[in-house]
Amino acid sequence: MLQVNDLHVTVEGKEILKGLTLTINAGEVHAIMGPNGAGKSTLSAVIAGKDGYEVTQGSITFEGQDVLEMEIEERAQAGLLLGFQYPVEIPGVKNIYLLKSALNAQRAARGEGEMPAPEFMKLVKEKLGFMKMDASFLQRAVNEGFSGGEKKRNEILQMLVLQPKLAMLDEIDSGLDIDAMKVVADGVNSLRAEERAILLVTHYQRLLDYIVPDKVHVLVDGRIVKTGDAELAKELEANGYEGIEESVA
Amino acid sequence: MSDTQTFLDTLATRSQQRAGEPTWIAARRQAGAARFDAMGFPTRRDEEWKYTDVRAIAKGNFALADNAEFSQAQAAAITLPIDAYRLTFVDGVFSAALSDVDALPDSVQVMPLSKALTDNHEAVGGPLGRLTGVDFSTFAALNTAFMEEGAVVRIAPGTVVEKPILLQFLSRAGTPVMSHPRILVEAAGRSEATLIEHYVGEADAANFTNVVAELMLDRGAILNHYKLQEAPIGDLHVASIHVEQNRDSRYTSYNLNLGGALVRNDLISDLNGQGAETNFYGLFFGQGRQHVDNHTKVNHNAPLTFSNENYKGILDDRAHGVFNGKVYVKRDSQKIEGFQSNQNLLLSDRAQIDAKPELEIYADDVKCSHGTTTGQLDEDAIYALRTRGIDEATARGLLTLAFAGEVLEQVALDAIAERVELAVAGKLPERFNLAGLVEAAAALND
């Protein structure tokens, strides 16, 4: 589904990713772990298309399409969706408006018509309930005045409504208490499906107790230095990244 | 020849054509002309005109229109599609063909000024000019010198006018002309009405409109006043709106400016009785080289009066906006509340805003606040919307519309809100329409 090949990325002249290679197949849940500054967030930002990241070498393909040639919105319409570590507040744009606009933009890109309003509302209410969010969230401006936990739940809500092919979640566990993390993890787990893949970017192992990945990659200094299964995350928890970094050196 | 002389010559020619008008009007007209001549056009050395250059008006040569020809089809295409009592003026000349006030109840009078003067000029002579004297400004004096047409609205005590009263001013392409409409509204005690002023016209028009509106609200009267200024992009537009509010009256202004090359609005409310409330909502949107200047003033002349002001400016290209808002609290007008907010959004590096909020308070037990901010669209928010599949142009449109939202949400008339939305956000694709969701949500809750 997603292939990242020998990716080199610089930010403001500094090389952050230094030859990253990664393959994600449909049905898989991958976790990328690594110390601060290793380039974890850079990877998801480049895949989503954020400004300021220069790809100097390598490629990213998604279902055979060259991702780097696609506009930001085209990536989302194709089913590549990023859940932000720090969701942006958008004053004046209601949540319900964003959900409807985004869903219908995606449908339009697929050549489908708009989802009828009653069907849409039914879908949104169901997902809201799943995320234990009150219906009043729909009428509030996107993330405006939301607590950290509410913002994260809102990101997952968008995922549940938009049903991406590849959901990338950047530090979705940061700033969450244990109850909120369970709700978020339940939301993410409900996305698991044969036709879908999930990429978790996280600093801590604790999220992976709730969302058990098929593969864990350790990202150090811009490269994946080790890949394993969920057990690898537990090793990291026990021994930290230092042991890994030393073994690379 | 001085700038004023061109206008005075046109006035002299017009005066010769008039015959048999009441002596008080002739006297007012002369006073207006004299005051206009003495003051001359303001320059940027005048504090009130520091940011607005009126040479395009002063150096202009404007005739006076002598007919109101305008096709029904064309009018239908550009005017508001709403059910209203309607008076239409074409380049300042009343058009009976495009007006419809037949269904008015006896308790409401809506008529062209020319008819009011013919029918019963004494009834007009008292209130006309009481709020806007010739000393107010050069433009008020000029309006007085030329006044002959406009609208007179009288609402009897306790009358609730069910339909809006729509005054539409159409501007034609061709030889540049000027018009000096005069609007007089007398809203008696506990009456309720919605008044709409709509300025619109042919794309290539380049006319000068200089309107003076005097609105008098007696005890407990409620007036919702929409001004939708969509004048052609070459038009010059100057307006003075004075509001007098007696006890417990409530005036709400929706001052929506989208058109015109050079626009200046002076909006003044006098809160003269306890419990009176004034709300000023404003939105101005400038593109190209448009210049839009809004000067507002709230005078808290009595204790326990309330004002709330929210002006939003959106400026693109090389447009220039001016906001000057003053809240004045008279000596010992205690327990008043006066709030003012002005926010501006610059969509281009060359757009410009001059914002000046002012408070002048001579009482010690008041609640007042004011603030002004100017910013640009949040690029992070545009990115966030795009990562959800929304294209960039639409994302910018949505965010611009969201910026205008606080003011637009106040606009209760859909036909007007739609015009403004279209102007500021462009035509958003159907899929961005929220229609149907509210009903669907309500149905699910049942």
Automatic annotation (TrEMBL), chain A:
TM regions (residue ranges): none
Determine if ATP-binding is one of this entry's keywords.
yes
Enumerate the GO terms in the molecular function aspect.
Answer: ATP binding; ATP hydrolysis activity
Q: Which UniProt keywords apply?
A: ATP-binding, Nucleotide-binding
The superkingdom listed in its UniProt entry is Bacteria
Residue ranges occupied by any ABC transporter domain in the UniProt entry? 2-246
Matches recorded under Pfam families: ABC_tran
SMART domains xrefs: AAA
InterPro entries, per database record: AAA+_ATPase (IPR003593), ABC_transporter-like_ATP-bd (IPR003439), ABC_transporter-like_CS (IPR017871), FeS-cluster_ATPase_SufC (IPR010230), P-loop_NTPase (IPR027417)
Protein family (similarity comment): Belongs to the ABC transporter superfamily. Ycf16 family.
Q: What is this protein called?
A: Fe-S cluster assembly ATPase SufC
Species name: Vreelandella aquamarina
